[in-house]
Write a structure and sequence with these properties.
heterodimer; A: alpha+beta; PH-domain like; 2 domains; four-stranded antiparallel sheet; three-stranded antiparallel sheet; 32% strand; elongated; B: mainly alpha; 57% helix; globular
């Protein structure tokens, strides 16, 4: 019984802490300033990554960078107040759905969120769709 | 087994008060960072860990009562036995923690604690749910009881050790006076432990006393010129506590399923995290070698030329 009370009180306290955190703020949504900043971010996590062609999304919340001489692609995603970095192969992608100049990407890895990346125009989106699916 | 109170239950209100204080500190100074979804995931994982502790408590207790029968000495309850128990328990913690980073079987459990890219007091509570399946209470928990320390005393000292480690998960405290930094685990030392910068990887395993790291060559001081980047080598993009809890276990299952030999399958489970038969992934040691920082350093060396891609 004591354990149950402690768990219930803890659950209430956790809810209150999250609400307090949401209410008082104290964080700034992250944003990728430039493509170079995205490449720097990738190279911090993967020293040997040789950056090739890359693209920053229109809203500066995502960036994709090809690795020179391989089919690997570096991804930088703004999430909350942090930047999430991953390097993946086209095999790691479950689905890429184009919608005009936007690509909706679903990864096989269940620890990665679905990403919706808006490019400047449809031609660029189509080019990246080909790269992401290994067609290029 | 003698009944002692669980000090963690008494510490919970202080945990909550300190988190509120750090939240306000973050808001008004900008010198700490919180994000609600990240905090929520960490706190939910702490709650899940407590529930798992209650559900599985009987397994550990039964084991300790059983091996207590084979204790070499009967050390009793004298005050100096308490002190010896606390210090030795911290020594055992150092090694269990070191193995938790260097053997993937244990890392699959411990990785959850490192999976936040934030470093604040809620991160301290981001704890695994399935520790019992690693059987670490057998491998690491038995020594003290076999030596003759009363199981309840060992459990109590272990809980005090965990309570100590709560307050060091903060960016709000920079450095403490040198004698404290020399002997005790501090926020500065533990920030290094949670950082993924190559020079900081797999350093500072201490629980309470940093002297173990200094003794066994795993100490690395925090350097002003190398700000800590928190998280894990392959950071997670999910705030779902269940996904965070199981992701590395799932990775092991997938790797073992694809192993080309029994030896490879064993290595996927018991080799260091990041091991792969073709070297296509990197262990912490390989990352440190590539960055030229295999040994602890006093200041950052010039970056060495990079080797060919092999992440």
């Amino acid at each position: 019984m004591t354990s149950l009370i402690i768990i219930l009180v803890s659950a209430a306290a956790i809810s209150a802490l999250i609400a307090l955190n949401a209410w008082i703020g104290g964080w700034t949504p992250s944003r990728i300033e430039t493509l170079d900043a995205a490449i720097d971010q990738i190279r911090q996590d993967s020293l040997s990554f040789a950056a090739g062609d890359g693209q920053l999304s229109r809203d500066q919340r995502a960036a994709l960078v090809c690795e020179a001489g391989s089919d690997r692609i570096g991804l930088v995603l703004a999430q909350g107040d942090i930047l999430l970095t991953r390097i993946f192969h086209p095999d790691d992608i479950a689905r890429v759905v184009p919608d005009g100049a936007t690509l909706a990407i679903r990864f096989r890895d269940f620890t990665l969120p679905n990403a919706s990346i808006a490019f400047d125009d449809e031609a660029i989106a189509a080019q990246w769709q080909a790269r992401l699916t290994g067609a290029e | 087994m003698t009944d002692l109170p669980d000090p963690i239950q008494y510490a919970i209100p202080f945990f909550i008060l300190l988190i509120v204080a750090e939240l306000l500190f973050a808001k008004f100074t900008g010198k700490a960072r919180f994000e609600p979804r990240d905090s929520g995931a960490s706190l939910a994982m702490g709650l899940g860990n407590s529930i798992a502790g209650i559900v599985f408590a009987g397994i550990g207790a039964t084991w300790f009562v059983f091996i207590g029968e084979y204790a070499v000495f009967d050390l009793g309850w004298a005050w100096y036995v308490w002190i010896a128990c606390f210090v030795l328990d911290d020594f055992v913690y150092y090694w269990s923690h070191r193995f938790a980073h260097t053997i993937r079987w244990f890392w699959a459990d411990h990785v959850t604690h490192h999976s936040s890219q934030h470093y604040n007091l809620t991160t301290a509570l981001r704890q695994p749910w399935f520790s019992v399946f690693t059987l670490k209470f057998i491998w690491f928990g038995s020594w003290m009881v076999l030596l003759g320390f009363p199981p309840a005393m060992v459990a109590f000292c272990g809980a005090l050790n965990l309570i100590y480690q709560f307050w060091i998960h903060t960016e709000a405290i920079k450095k403490l006076p040198a004698p404290v930094e020399a002997i005790m685990n501090t926020p500065s030392h533990h920030r290094v432990h949670h950082a993924t910068n190559p020079v900081y990887l797999d350093r500072n395993y201490a629980g309470v006393f940093i002297v173990w790291d200094r003794m066994f060559g795993t100490f690395q001081a925090e350097m002003n010129e190398v700000p800590c980047r928190y998280g894990i080598v392959r950071n997670l993009g999910t705030y779902n506590p269940l996904r965070i809890s199981i992701h590395e276990w799932w990775g092991i299952i997938r790797d073992v399923g694809s192993a080309k030999s029994f030896r490879d399958a064993l290595a996927y489970v018991f080799a260091p995290p990041g091991w792969s038969p073709d070297g296509s992934r990197l262990t912490s040691r390989a990352i440190k070698q590539n960055a030229g920082v295999e040994k602890p350093v006093r200041s950052m060396p010039e970056a060495p030329p990079q080797k060919a891609p092999a992440e």
